[in-house]
Design goal:
Growth Hormone, Chain: A, 18 helices, globular, transmembrane helix
Length: 478
């Protein structure tokens, strides 16, 4: 009887081309999370969108994208990852065309919702394919370094593109620009990603999907209402309570069924759990900082959309440098060290908001803020994406999807919590300085400084928590 062990299958020769195509598709989706931020005022005027509905152009994308990521992860096991990638790109491109051709607010909002839906179908399969294709520590670090650069830099590039396209071609091109990227990415995936057999006996946990999606959406909806309605508003309270209750039922269900949407072992693993927590907390500070900086640059410093977009370029450059450093350490450095370094970098960026003044220059403190935010983003995302998908087996897609779900929750939480802190501090300043010169602008900047300091304290506490929770071994081999 032979005892020879079969040699491991050679790596796919098309894997690097597949990575390029997948990264291009994810770049398109991630850019659309911020590209409309600067284009929104122009779209609002063109479509006569009321102020109360303008925020939903941004929020509805986050709701549908974040709320459906876990379901998208399980659908990839059911219909195949390659199919999910191609369907996701085709649907996203069609939704972008619909948005660019919008003649009323309803068309624009519908297109943004559909972008979120099809983005949620694409992202889990993208992460799962990377996690299962690049298995050696050296290649894994390089692949997730490239992916992390794309993901991290997309927010800054989205803001820059939004400014450039709005000033040159008009706001509609902030939607149309996704179409050629989707076509190129789909062609690359069709060529480089080989069809894989579906997992036998896979079932979709429909009840869990409904509970997770509705719970997340209710939670995010409640958080988005805080800045306008306050924490005590019945709609805010009702949404937050409903979201918490639905998510609690989801956790209870997942612990009792044979094929859960999100197996609890995925999040109870210490390294993964620490990675998810780090991404959530990083997003709290990062997205709130972007929100404040966009308004500070345009409303306080009175920069044009184009110049505002270009002002975020150092953020992208910082991410690229941070990713190159982080990917070299993935094989050996403790997971918690990499994650905590990123969180502390973000904390320092928010602390520098305390130095903002009406006459603040770009070189200081704005440039250091952007560099520190980019550094923190790069370190956290590369480590988290690699750690989440490492040795996840049949749960790879949903483990990767949970990273992005954590980011969406963190983004909404950050804008709600720190936005409320800024609004409260602004109102208090207005009340204590009646009749002062330039009162409105001074009060706004004061609100940003208070919120920044509060966010810095929160992230320092988050870094300590992640240090205690996360595993100590490198994500290249736990």
């Amino acid at each position: 009887m032979s005892t020879a062990v079969a040699a491991p299958a050679p790596p796919d020769s098309r894997r690097w081309r597949a990575l390029g195509a997948i990264a291009a598709g994810q770049f398109m989706i991630a850019v659309d999370a911020t590209i409309m931020n600067i284009s929104l005022p122009s779209a609002q005027r063109a479509l006569h969108l009321p102020d109360s509905g303008a925020q939903w152009v941004i929020t509805i994308f986050a709701l549908c994208y974040g709320g459906l990521l876990l379901l998208g992860g399980r659908l990839s096991d059911l219909i195949g990852r390659r199919n999910c990638l191609l369907i996701g790109l085709a649907g996203f491109a069609a939704a972008s065309i619909l948005g660019g051709a919008a003649v009323n607010p309803a068309m624009l909002l519908l297109s943004r919702a559909l972008q979120g839906v099809f983005g949620a179908l694409f992202t889990p399969s993208a992460l799962a394919l990377l996690g299962t294709t690049f298995t050696t520590p050296a290649e894994r670090g390089k692949a997730f370094g490239i992916y992390g650069t794309v993901m991290g830099s997309s927010s800054g590039i989205g803001l820059m593109l939004g400014g450039v396209l709005t000033d040159t071609l008009g706001w509609r091109w902030s939607m149309y620009v996704s179409v050629p990227i989707a076509v190129a990415a789909a062609a690359g995936i069709a060529h480089a990603v080989r069809p894989a057999p579906r997992q036998a006996g896979t079932r979709v946990d429909v009840t869990g999907a409904v509970l997770a999606t509705s719970g997340f959406m209710a939670l995010v909806f409640g958080l988005t209402r805080v800045s306008s309605d306050g924490w005590s508003a019945p709609l805010t309270i009702g949404s937050l309570v409903a979201g918490a209750a639905l998510l609690a039922l989801f956790v209870l269900l997942e612990s009792r069924i044979a094929q859960p949407l999100l197996p609890l072992r995925v999040v109870l693993d210490r390294s993964r759990g620490g990675a998810y927590l780090a991404v959530l907390c990083m997003a709290v500070g990062n997205f709130a900082a972007f929100f404040f900086l966009t308004f500070f640059l345009q409303n306080v410093l009175e920069l044009s959309p184009l110049v505002t977009g270009l002002a975020f370029l150092p953020y992208t450059a910082a991410i690229m440098i941070a990713v190159r450093l982080a990917k070299r350490l993935l094989e050996h450095a403790p997971v918690r060290l990499l994650l905590c370094s990123g969180l502390l970098s973000t904390a320092l960026a928010l602390a520098l908001f305390g130095l903002l003044r009406l006459d603040s220059g770009y070189a200081f403190p704005l440039l250091p803020i952007l560099v520190l935010l980019g550094t923190g983003n790069g370190w956290v995302l590369v480590t988290a994406n690699s750690t989440a998908t490492l040795d996840a087996g049949p749960d790879t897609a949903v483990a990767g999807a949970t990273v992005m779900t954590s980011m969406q929750i963190g983004a909404s939480l950050g804008i709600a919590l720190l936005g409320t802190a800024a609004g409260t501090a602004t109102a208090a300043f207005l009340g204590s300085h009646p009749g002062a010169t330039g009162l409105a602008a001074r009060a706004t900047v004061h609100g940003y400084t208070v919120a920044g300091m509060a966010g810095a304290a929160f992230l320092c506490l988050a870094a300590l928590t992640v240090f205690l929770v996360a595993g100590q071994k490198g994500s290249g081999g736990r």
